[in-house]
Design brief:
The structure is a homodimer of 156-residue chains. The first copy, chain A, has 156 residues and is an alpha+beta fold. The first copy, chain A, folds into two domains: 3-51, Orthogonal Bundle (Arc Repressor Mutant, subunit A); 57-134, Lrp/AsnC effector binding domain/regulation of amino acid metabolism (RAM) domain (Alpha-Beta Plaits, 2-Layer Sandwich), CATH 3.30.70. Chain A has five helices and five strands. In chain A, a hairpin with a 5-residue loop joins strand 3 (90-96) and strand 4. The longest helix of chain A has 13 residues, at 31-43. Chain A starts with a helix and ends in a 15-residue tail after the last strand. Chains A and B meet through helix 1, strand 1, helix 4, strand 3 and strand 4 of A and helix 1, strand 1, helix 4, strand 3 and strand 4 of B. Chain A binds a DNA duplex (17 and 17 nucleotides) through helix 3.
DNA sequence: TATGAAATGGATTGGCC
DNA sequence: GGCCAATCCATTTCATA
């Protein structure tokens, strides 16, 4: 992870479909060298994959919500994690400190669809307690890391 | 937005660096047709961009938190939104229903860095109240939309 | 690990349906 | 809107440092 790698990550964060030659010239290396570095970043697991940012509303997803979850019995944990894995509407699942155990980010078609995910999906487990926070409007949503301070000793 | 476009989005969500010919053959079109469709999806705003998924911990970001924010006076709103825009550590900002006004997702180097973002960043505004929830572990984090039910009438 | 040149293969353009 | 064919350009490989 030197400054070339940082530039590569920054470039790919801005446009993952950039050609190797664009990538290479923008960071000041030859194409083979840039491609080699990207392959190594992939092998190290620093680059986990490439994706596309789709406007959720333009494809019919009008409802975003955060669902805080508490499991009333510890035995539920593995069932819960499996359920989360299967529910495509659950985009994120974080184990959190505080009053609740997990925080989920859920993306649905509308509130009726959210009801389905919560009532037929999550609540299909017994001893699960939820608190849902509806998102009224999303003002910022970036998958980019700050990348101001990359720790070089990591990822080697 | 017909079934070809849906397949394109699904393919790009899985690997945005796929070549045109891979993309084309996987959806059953010729390369120029596939490239045309992607260009149209970009023009319509359905595709907002392409990105790379970087492992946060492997580049030194060990702390994720959700910060709920309440603004005590409505006049703060524009200053707050400008601040959010500038703070690179704030990856997401959602206007929410409920006890708090906004929910932020924040990605930092460590808890000390989180303290800096909250104390010197957010709290630099007067009348702002926050409640921070630390993420202990992230079990799922995908930027993919479910895309099970694309509304064809939208995005035309 | 980087470079440069050669060979390969994919992307783009234009004509046509 | 899509296909095919031809041109053009990017990627990959290999030899070298």
């Amino acid at each position: 992870m030197d400054s070339y790698d940082e530039k590569i990550l920054r470039m790919l964060m801005a446009n993952a479909r950039a050609t190797w030659s664009d990538l290479a010239s923008s960071i000041g290396l030859s194409s083979p060298a840039a491609a080699d570095r990207v392959r190594r970043l992939e092998e190290k697991g620093i680059i986990k994959g490439y994706g596309v940012a789709v406007d959720p509303e333009l494809v019919g997803y009008f409802c975003t919500a955060f669902v805080a979850v508490t499991l009333e019995r510890a035995e539920l944990r593995s069932d819960f994690l499996h359920l989360i894995d299967c529910l495509k509407e659950v985009q994120e699942c974080h184990h959190i400190a505080g009053d609740y155990d997990y925080l989920l980010k859920v993306r649905c078609i509308n509130t009726k669809d959210l009801d389905r995910v919560i009532s037929s999906g999550l609540k299909s487990l017994p001893g699960i307690r939820t608190r849902t926070t509806i998102v009224l409007n999303t003002l910022k949503e970036s998958t980019r890391l700050p990348l101001d301070q990359v720790h070089p000793e990591k990822g080697e």
